Amino acid sequence: MYLFIHRKDLRTTDMRAFDYLRSKDDAGIHLLILDPALVGGGRLTSHSGRSFIGQAASLLLSYADAGKELHVLYGEPERVTEALLQAHPIEEVVVHDDYTPYARLRDERLRELARKLGRSWTPVADAPLADMTAFPAYARRSGSVPYKVFTPFYRKWNRYIAEHYGPASDIAVDDLATVREIDPAVAAAFALPEPVACALGASSGVEGTAKPSAKLDRFIRERLAAYAYNRDNYAEDATSGLARFMNAGSISVRQAYEATQGLPGAENWLRQLAWRDFFLYQAIYHEDFFRYEHLTDLSPLSDVHFEAWASGSTGIPLIDAAMTQLNRTGELPNRLRMIVAMFLTKNLLCPFTLGEQHFRLHLSDYDNAQNRGGWLWCSSLGYDAAPYFRVMNPVSQSQRYDPDGSYIRRWLPHLAHLSDKEIHRPLGGAIVDLKASRARAIDVYKTIVLAGAGDERRLMGR
């Protein structure tokens, strides 16, 4: 018997772990653990939490439709797993790899637990499009130094995908034998608390329960061909809308890749998938990816204006409209994510970690590695980030990508009476002057970034 634990793989098809389990021809317990560390702290009722719970409900339904059993328990993963290993003749624990600091620590504890109890521990890579265990050797970087810049990474990555891409699998949960009953004492000890059970049971109205394949088909049919030209036109929201499904694993990145190949617009879509892999690559191979706030002197920054930004009350129409959309819906087109993030970190001189945490709760498609990669880029930290002197101007961005101000009118209807020219401009009483705050940001971030670069050179010289 095996134990398979779902994490960021909330689907029942094209699972690398399922390929492995099918080859074993054995029955197993399939489990989803609702971890208090990940669904607690108010996240259960946040946009990101509701999206996750909705997709978990969809996963349960997919198992039921296939006539298979998925057990859902609540508790610390180590305690839940230990209880099952003690109660059942499980020989092997199988999971898909995860790369965040919390996930690494969790999995190290699970690996040690399995070893202590004499069981096998088998992690399987699934999330990246490219095989990140084989890619570094293929890339053959001098001195085995991982890539830090996206463009050369993309060139090698693109070539690797062309030569060594591993296609989606035909194996589904239908091809596996799942154990229907688990030990009653274990089921009772880790039963879902009422609020969690209610959230899971009431999630049928959440968009996350929609068929991801239908979203993918619609994107291909309506948006892919013009994707490169329209994706920044945030008023039309011409982005794919697939990130929430790929980040939670309710659709595999391979399925999204294969469905678009050879079609008009596919090349630009592929580049976005490469950015996704680039941030996963950073999470795997650069230990500083999740530690920049501890390695960089952010003392010149403060949280003075954070609440105004978070609540959409800065007096800058585009920023306030974007934050209103995010807070109300959990949605925000990528162009606006960059604009509001750069405004917070540069014009308002707030630490990127504050915005990162706000997005954690409010983004329906939240993913730790992708979210952090975006915030580091906007705040000129990390590898291949925006240069310290790049500060997006929300007025000129608004004028360029939404000339008639339809987006601002939609989310800030009290400004709808303004002319197409006036609607983009800062309001009286705006919390910062854009020109002065830009100049200040360049001075401050020049000091932060250059000091950080000096520290890195000194460390490399040791």
Automatic annotation (TrEMBL):
Required cofactor(s): FAD
Top-level division of the source organism's lineage: Bacteria
Entry-linked Pfam families: DNA_photolyase, FAD_binding_7
Membrane-crossing residue ranges in chain numbering: none
Chain ranges of the Photolyase/cryptochrome alpha/beta domain: 1-129
Keywords: Chromophore, FAD, Flavoprotein
Free-text comment on the cofactor: Binds 1 FAD per subunit.
Binding-site positions, FAD: 227, 269, 272-279, 365-367
GO molecular function terms noted in the UniProt entry: deoxyribodipyrimidine photo-lyase activity; DNA binding; FAD binding
Protein family: Belongs to the DNA photolyase family.
PANTHER family, sorted: CRYPTOCHROME, CRYPTOCHROME CIRCADIAN CLOCK 5 ISOFORM X1
Name of this chain's protein: Deoxyribodipyrimidine photo-lyase
